[in-house]
Amino acid sequence: MPINASTQALLAGLERSRPVLVTGATGYVAGQLIRRLLEEGLTVHAAVRDPGNSERLTALMALGERLPGELRVFASDLLKQGSYAQAMAGCGVVFHTASPFVVSVLDPERDLVRPAVEGTRNVLEEANRQTSVERVVLTSSCAAIYSDNADALDTPRGCFDESVWNTTASLEHQAYSHSKTLAEQTAWQIAEQQSRWRLVVINPSLVLGPAISDDTRGESFSLMTQLCDGTLRIGAPDYGMGVVDVRDVAEAHLAAGFLPTANGRHLVAGHSSSFIELGRALRRHAGPQYAIPARQLPKWLVWLAGPLANKAVTRKVVARNVGHPFVFDNTRSREQLGLIYRPLETTLHDMFDQLEASGRLS
User: Fold this and answer.
1) Residues 6+ apart with CB under 8 A from 107
2) Average pLDDT, integer, range 50-76
3) Quick check: is 316 catalytic?
4) CB 145 within 8 A of CB 165
5) Residue 315: in which H helix or E strand, if any?
6) What pLDDT score does 269 carry?
7) Taking the CB of residue 312, how many other CB atoms lie within 10 A of it?
8) Residue from 360, 361, 23 nearest 213 by CA
9) How many whole angstroms separate alpha carbon 110 and alpha carbon 58?
10) Residue 303: which pLDDT band, with cuts at 50, 70 and 90?
11) What is the reported pTM?
C-alpha cells in the first residue's frame, strides 16, 4: 500500500470538479503522476512542448483512453512567459514537474539554472494570474537540501531533513544541485508575496522504478542501464545516495496536491543506498548473462579515474560522496503525506524487468 489508511480516506473526497495542470507531462515522474490523477477520475491538463509529437505522447494517450479521468494536451514552453495561460485556465491545482535533470552539461547557467529558475518563475507567475489556482505543488529535489553526502556532517541533527538548505553548490561544484536550490528558492519567494494559493514542495532523492513508457530516457535510466549492461563490470564505487520509487513520488504529489493540511517541504526518500549496493541487489535478481558489478572499487581509484570517465565526477565530488552514506529523516513525508515506501528490491526489480522486456539491456 503506497499511502496509509488515513491519507487514503482523506483523498477519497478530493475535488474532482476542476481540472489540474501537470507541466513537463512527458517526463518520468509526470507520467506516473498523471496515471494516478487519471485513476482518481480527474481531468488532467498535460502541458508539453510539442503536442504534435505523437510518438512522445503515445503512453500518455493510452492512459487517457483506459483510465476514468480525462486527458487534455496543451502546448507550453518552459522559457516563454505566458505560455501556460491556456493550460492553467480553470485549474485548481498546478503540479510543476518540468525541470531539466541532467548531470553533465556544457554550460550550467544556460542548460540547468536558466530553465529551472525561469521555468519555475513563469509557471508560478501564471498561477498568480489564474484566479482558479488554489495550490501549486513543486517538484524540487533533495539536491536543494544538499550537494554532497558529507554535508550531513554540518547539519544541526547530523542528517538531511526539510529544515536544511543547500549552501555548498555552485556553477563550478554540483551545478545541478545549484539549479534546483535556486529554483526552489524562487518558488518560495513568489509564493510568499501572495496569499491566494499555497505552495507545497516535494524533494525527492534519486528516483528509480518503472516508467509508463518503455522508451523513457533520462539519468535514472542511464544509471540503471550502466549497472546492468557491463559498463561497470569491473566494479562500482561506494557512492552513497538516497533512492525512492517513482510510484511513491507520484503518491507524494497526489497527497501534496489534495490533503487539506499539506504544506511546506517534504524530503521524499525511501532508502539509503550506493552504486555498489544497487549492483549487488540487482545481481540477486538478474540472470548470469548480465555483467552487473559485485566488486567495490577502492576510493583512491575512483578519485583518480572518476574525472577521466565523467567530467561531472570531480575529485571534490568523489572525496565528499564516496564512503559517505546518505543520512536522512523522512518522518515528515510519512506523517504528513502518509507515504509508505516500497521496498528497494521491488523498485529495482520492476525497473530491471521493464528494461529487459523492452530489449534495452541487450
Assistant:
1) none
2) 93
3) no
4) yes
5) helix 315-321
6) 98
7) 16
8) 360
9) 30
10) confident
11) 0.95
